[in-house]
Design goal:
Blueprint lengths: L5 H9 L3 H23 L2 H18 L10 H38 L6 H20 L2 H11 L5 H8 L3 H23 L1
């Protein structure tokens, strides 16, 4: 019996065949994971890109045209884009973390400046400290360690012994809560 082609399996996936999706995953995942890891440079982010890519394939497999490319080539292009998107998002997060840390440090550093500006800075710094203290402990800790100490989500997960998704959720919820609390102060 001949081995079914990648293209035939992908076409079955396009018709909603879950067994074909499992078969495609078994064939492609090791190579596609290696590509994503090489682009991103982080194993956990590469795993996330792998999941994103296979979800995309599941959704778009019906659009695959075997006359235009091989199934593996089509998948490589999808995973390359997913990995690059994750890499860019990671770099944006790092830049935002650095900017937020600089802003928080600026609020705490004394400077010689006009009295009204100094008072405004002191009030802003106190508002940030109050807002941080009002966060639940797990959110406050994750936000502080990610933004002030520069730890990655994965480092936090390992340090706290908490699932990565929980760390990401705590940071996101903490930042959203801070935004809401600080908007009330500004308004």
């Amino acid at each position: 019996m001949e081995k079914e082609s990648d293209e035939a399996i992908l076409q079955r996936v396009g018709r909603g065949d879950e067994a074909a999706m499992a078969q495609l995953y078994d064939r492609f995942a090791p190579s596609l994971f290696a590509i994503a890891r090489r682009i991103i440079g982080d194993e956990q982010e590469a795993r996330d890109a792998l999941q994103d890519g296979f979800l995309y394939i599941w959704d778009k497999a019906a659009d695959f045209d075997p006359a235009r490319s091989k199934a593996f080539t089509w998948a490589v292009m999808i995973f390359r884009h997913k990995a690059i998107d994750r890499l860019r998002a990671s770099r944006r997060r790092i830049r935002l973390n650095e900017t937020a840390a600089e802003n928080l440090l600026d609020l705490e550093s004394p400077r010689s400046e006009r009295a009204d500006i100094s008072l405004e800075r002191a009030e802003s710094a106190e508002a940030v400290r109050r807002a941080m203290r009002s966060l639940p402990d797990e959110q406050r800790q994750c936000v502080e360690w990610a933004f002030l100490r520069g730890l990655t989500h994965l480092q936090l997960s390992e340090l706290l012994g908490t699932p990565l998704g929980t760390v990401k959720t705590n940071i996101r919820r903490g930042l959203m809560r801070l935004r809401d609390l600080l908007q009330e102060v500004v308004s």
